[in-house]
Amino acid sequence: MSMRTHYCGLTTEALLDQTVSLCGWVHRRRDHGGVIFIDLRDREGLVQIVCNPEEAEVFKNAEVVRNEFCLRITGVVRNRPDGTVNNNLNSGKIEVLAHTLEVLNASVTPPFQLDDDNLSETTRLTHRVLDLRRPQMQNNLRLRYKVTMEVRKFLDANGFIDIETPMLTKSTPEGARDYLVPSRVNAGHFFALPQSPQLFKQLLMVANFDRYYQIVKCFRDEDLRADRQPEFTQIDCETSFMSEQEIRDMFEGMIRLVFKNALDIDLPNPFPVMDFATAMALYGSDKPDMRVKLEFTDLTEVMKDVDFKVFAGAANMENGRVVGLRVPGGAAMPRSEIDAYTQFVAIYGARGLAYIKVNEKAKGRDGLQSPIVKNLHDAALTQILVQTGAEDGDLIFFGADKAKIVNDAIGALRVKIGHSEFGKKVGLFDDTWRPLWVVDFPMFEYDEAGDRWSACHHPFTAPKDGHEDYLETDPGKCIAKAYDMVLNGWELGGGSIRIHRAEVQSKVFRALKIDAEEAQLKFGFLLDALQYGAPPHGGLAFGLDRIVTMMTGAESIRDVIAFPKTQRAQCLLTQAPSAVEEKQLKELHIRLRAPEAKVVS
Amino acid sequence: MSMRTHYCGLTTEALLDQTVSLCGWVHRRRDHGGVIFIDLRDREGLVQIVCNPEEAEVFKNAEVVRNEFCLRITGVVRNRPDGTVNNNLNSGKIEVLAHTLEVLNASVTPPFQLDDDNLSETTRLTHRVLDLRRPQMQNNLRLRYKVTMEVRKFLDANGFIDIETPMLTKSTPEGARDYLVPSRVNAGHFFALPQSPQLFKQLLMVANFDRYYQIVKCFRDEDLRADRQPEFTQIDCETSFMSEQEIRDMFEGMIRLVFKNALDIDLPNPFPVMDFATAMALYGSDKPDMRVKLEFTDLTEVMKDVDFKVFAGAANMENGRVVGLRVPGGAAMPRSEIDAYTQFVAIYGARGLAYIKVNEKAKGRDGLQSPIVKNLHDAALTQILVQTGAEDGDLIFFGADKAKIVNDAIGALRVKIGHSEFGKKVGLFDDTWRPLWVVDFPMFEYDEAGDRWSACHHPFTAPKDGHEDYLETDPGKCIAKAYDMVLNGWELGGGSIRIHRAEVQSKVFRALKIDAEEAQLKFGFLLDALQYGAPPHGGLAFGLDRIVTMMTGAESIRDVIAFPKTQRAQCLLTQAPSAVEEKQLKELHIRLRAPEAKVVS
């Protein structure tokens, strides 16, 4: 007989009266009326084992087992007695009467209960192996696997080929910081771990593979925010000879299929499409959470000549913006909540949060409650009411500052209110899945610090048809064939049509003030490849960690990664990174910079 | 209409009279009777495009195109004229009469013809993108994909879950050299790139994932031999609660399925199994090429008292060995060939290659032709003939030295003769697929230099049942639950049952002279995990690059990797590794060791 004939969690009444051999962990043990009951757990779930005193050997062994002991049991499947059926379990109609019980391995007492939901993340990451035994983590990683398998099946069916690209590659220091790997054979030289396989996938298109994908680790040595990891996983895709529209159709089909097959969720078909300019105008964000039923009203023009200096100043500033955010029913909001929001927007650089409560429109100025109405002339007040569409009982928040601050602050406020108790109560939040394509991104954004244009997406993105001339005449007007897939306020993925002609690529480098020599040094192999009949091509990359985090409802991407790093980029389980031997450094032709560098900061 | 409606290579008579839109590269262009014919190529193959002078625009465009131009063509599928059908092509019955021809991208003249089979590897790797367009490379990488997809389907159907393990992990300097990654956040500390996910997959078993797999990059900073790469890909698998036999059955089933579905090859069922001792005795190798029908005959005992010093010396030496290799029909081998073999075995340290030609057995000593028979007494000669089973016309080669030299030299000679013209002609080579399991490896081998035992497999391998006591009493006698899958002289993969009890793991560390403190420092997290009811588990890892190299018949694993490194661990395409900016090193708290280190050696 095999060590195991069935999974515990899949042992059901279909096996009635059969002898089975089960392996798993003691989830709970209890003595009841002289009989020992063991809930035995494996990855598929629990099953109840009954150890009778009549089976002396079994009973003796059962007496010593404790939680998390690893057991092998053979026994016969029988119906549970009336009244003891547990419909929450797959195996809940049956129990297994043990004939043998073998302790495969004992366990010391775990540092925490597996069903404890209040563990600190430090405890969980230090004892990750036990943490991973918890049902939630089991589910998260199995769902992650299911997602990747559905992705692979979809892409396979559509002719995409998984091709591996190098992990030890060339450092091109721009965008994020590279992780470097010193070379032993080539003294003084370094590999870089890839931030993405962008250039390689383009080369594969030039090399006629036609459709490529890879579920691949990427690396960025950045200071970690809540949802970043030094190494993360991309679903990276590229195709030749498809239009932007065809690519978007293909990949929203993929995401729809994944949600359907992994979670039985029907996403809308098709996904709505919104251009970047509209998204910024209405939501102050290029990844708006469409579940929140609140929109900006742009009041920049209206405020140019009001007495209220904060509004007029912003309205007349270069890159200034004034917006109103109408909150239906918001007039009922207590002052304390408004104060809390004022503090909240300060995080995003807003220096205050003006508001008007619309108590009774018909009364005009007197029906409005606000510290600022006295500094707004009648025409402005009228325009505010007309343009926001405010009704009695509403509240209007205002943002006025540089556009970036307004967008960030009021954009965040919009989401905050939508997700609040209040927002949910008054119907400002539509608790469902609201995907969206955001398209027509600008090619460039102006980097004031560096006094130059930088690429919004990356420098290999193609300009929209007809916009090529702007590359030289007016880069700010140049729109890119770039697209992001957004879901409930998260960017799931993004991509673009790439430049396939060497002369256009050179123009973009010029616009970015990358001179020919630098371009050749960094991207010579791409420019070279484009010369040999490079095909029109494009693609996109999805953040797998993020998709699975959304799908599982996990709080952090660390909950969908088996062995994640902390925000200090450390692995608490293995204690990586760690000191290494001097001999190793010598072989790599490097030394530590200073003695104090040895101290962990 | 889409940019493309069909693949060139899949445009067949099924589409007769339909208008199609095709995209691809000019493989060949020829003018014939005032008509221009273009063989248009995409990843699926070629199709013939006809450009008539009547279509003035098409014809004008067709006149300027050259090899490797990227085109889009719309036209109508029609039968080829009688006598011009090409049965070598999928599309050979039809051609497409072009109505539009658009040059999507021009191409400069490629540095070589895509059908040139005599390109140097330097040329190929420098212009890798064009090299990858060649049909052989297209086939290799598509077969590689097919193999991985078959593997994934098989493992999915058997309940294995793909779980990602970290790329940035802890350096445990033993076995091969680690690639190190300096940490920016933790000054003076380093990550290591994984040599394999061995410990993580064991942790996943302790964490109750039950069945794990990953097709994953691994890294070893070794001096590269012909078939090594700094980064290589493993099919890495692990399972709980299965016996060695069950694991082997499972994975030979996987390999059988892959060969069947990817190449329509039926491998034997079941694979033969041979223990390590037998493999060494008969073939001097733990990965014998079973296609070669030659075996060693051990003559160590026979030679202990002969006059011939070379034989007697080896036979009486500690760890000495004398073997004969009978080559049926080998007496016909000319002296020049024997001399060449003598030089060949010298590579492996053999100081000569004695032989006996058996001309006429019946004549006894006089029927044997050899410089050495005069120093061998009659009883020895008789035993040689009896034990090797030599017949008239055979030749017997001899190896006599330390066992390692004999095994290496005569083992290599065996393969060399088997693969030679002679060997194939006289039927010593069975040109088929001959898989084999080699099992029952020793746990340890004695490292004379270090005067200590080292692990043959790795220190997490379980001893065979009943051999645990040898760990302390006689490590050399201890056999491991380890197994290698061998095919035609290549190790495809290998694995073992792991130690799942902390006390056994400690014993193995003691046998290896790894003290408790060192064990805790390096493997503390594993020892810790084993305490919490670690299940019995085991697994194996296959070398994907090697499997695909064998399946494609490629000469090097570099031919089944899209962007490989040279033997100097460089990427000729991107010029990685390369110098980096001082600022980057500063951020990583390292500096180059010496000014001259900057010079590429």
Automatic annotation (TrEMBL), chains A, B:
<feature type="site" description="Important for tRNA non-discrimination">
    <location>
        <position position="83"/>
    </location>
</feature>
<dbReference type="Pfam" id="PF02938">
    <property type="entry name" value="GAD"/>
</dbReference>
<comment type="function">
    <text>Aspartyl-tRNA synthetase with relaxed tRNA specificity since it is able to aspartylate not only its cognate tRNA(Asp) but also tRNA(Asn). Reaction proceeds in two steps: L-aspartate is first activated by ATP to form Asp-AMP and then transferred to the acceptor end of tRNA(Asp/Asn).</text>
</comment>
<feature type="binding site">
    <location>
        <position position="174"/>
    </location>
    <ligand>
        <name>L-aspartate</name>
    </ligand>
</feature>
<keyword id="KW-0030">Aminoacyl-tRNA synthetase</keyword>
<dbReference type="InterPro" id="IPR004364">
    <property type="entry name" value="Aa-tRNA-synt_II"/>
</dbReference>
<feature type="binding site">
    <location>
        <position position="491"/>
    </location>
    <ligand>
        <name>ATP</name>
    </ligand>
</feature>
<feature type="binding site">
    <location>
        <begin position="543"/>
        <end position="546"/>
    </location>
    <ligand>
        <name>ATP</name>
    </ligand>
</feature>
<feature type="region of interest" description="Aspartate">
    <location>
        <begin position="198"/>
        <end position="201"/>
    </location>
</feature>
<feature type="domain" description="Aminoacyl-transfer RNA synthetases class-II family profile">
    <location>
        <begin position="141"/>
        <end position="564"/>
    </location>
</feature>
<feature type="binding site">
    <location>
        <position position="229"/>
    </location>
    <ligand>
        <name>ATP</name>
    </ligand>
</feature>
<dbReference type="GO" id="GO:0006422">
    <property type="term" value="P:aspartyl-tRNA aminoacylation"/>
</dbReference>
<dbReference type="InterPro" id="IPR004365">
    <property type="entry name" value="NA-bd_OB_tRNA"/>
</dbReference>
<comment type="similarity">
    <text>Belongs to the class-II aminoacyl-tRNA synthetase family. Type 1 subfamily.</text>
</comment>
<dbReference type="InterPro" id="IPR002312">
    <property type="entry name" value="Asp/Asn-tRNA-synth_IIb"/>
</dbReference>
<keyword id="KW-0067">ATP-binding</keyword>
<dbReference type="InterPro" id="IPR029351">
    <property type="entry name" value="GAD_dom"/>
</dbReference>
<keyword id="KW-0648">Protein biosynthesis</keyword>
<keyword id="KW-0436">Ligase</keyword>
<dbReference type="GO" id="GO:0005524">
    <property type="term" value="F:ATP binding"/>
</dbReference>
<feature type="binding site">
    <location>
        <position position="220"/>
    </location>
    <ligand>
        <name>L-aspartate</name>
    </ligand>
</feature>
<dbReference type="GO" id="GO:0003676">
    <property type="term" value="F:nucleic acid binding"/>
</dbReference>
<feature type="binding site">
    <location>
        <begin position="220"/>
        <end position="222"/>
    </location>
    <ligand>
        <name>ATP</name>
    </ligand>
</feature>
<feature type="site" description="Important for tRNA non-discrimination">
    <location>
        <position position="32"/>
    </location>
</feature>
<dbReference type="Pfam" id="PF00152">
    <property type="entry name" value="tRNA-synt_2"/>
</dbReference>
<protein>
    <recommendedName>
        <fullName>Aspartate--tRNA(Asp/Asn) ligase</fullName>
        <ecNumber>6.1.1.23</ecNumber>
    </recommendedName>
</protein>
<dbReference type="InterPro" id="IPR004524">
    <property type="entry name" value="Asp-tRNA-ligase_1"/>
</dbReference>
<dbReference type="InterPro" id="IPR047089">
    <property type="entry name" value="Asp-tRNA-ligase_1_N"/>
</dbReference>
<dbReference type="InterPro" id="IPR047090">
    <property type="entry name" value="AspRS_core"/>
</dbReference>
<comment type="subunit">
    <text>Homodimer.</text>
</comment>
<keyword id="KW-0547">Nucleotide-binding</keyword>
<dbReference type="InterPro" id="IPR006195">
    <property type="entry name" value="aa-tRNA-synth_II"/>
</dbReference>
<feature type="binding site">
    <location>
        <position position="498"/>
    </location>
    <ligand>
        <name>L-aspartate</name>
    </ligand>
</feature>
<dbReference type="InterPro" id="IPR004115">
    <property type="entry name" value="GAD-like_sf"/>
</dbReference>
<dbReference type="InterPro" id="IPR045864">
    <property type="entry name" value="aa-tRNA-synth_II/BPL/LPL"/>
</dbReference>
<dbReference type="Pfam" id="PF01336">
    <property type="entry name" value="tRNA_anti-codon"/>
</dbReference>
<dbReference type="InterPro" id="IPR012340">
    <property type="entry name" value="NA-bd_OB-fold"/>
</dbReference>
<dbReference type="GO" id="GO:0050560">
    <property type="term" value="F:aspartate-tRNA(Asn) ligase activity"/>
</dbReference>
<dbReference type="GO" id="GO:0005737">
    <property type="term" value="C:cytoplasm"/>
</dbReference>
<feature type="binding site">
    <location>
        <position position="457"/>
    </location>
    <ligand>
        <name>L-aspartate</name>
    </ligand>
</feature>
<dbReference type="GO" id="GO:0004815">
    <property type="term" value="F:aspartate-tRNA ligase activity"/>
</dbReference>
<keyword id="KW-0963">Cytoplasm</keyword>
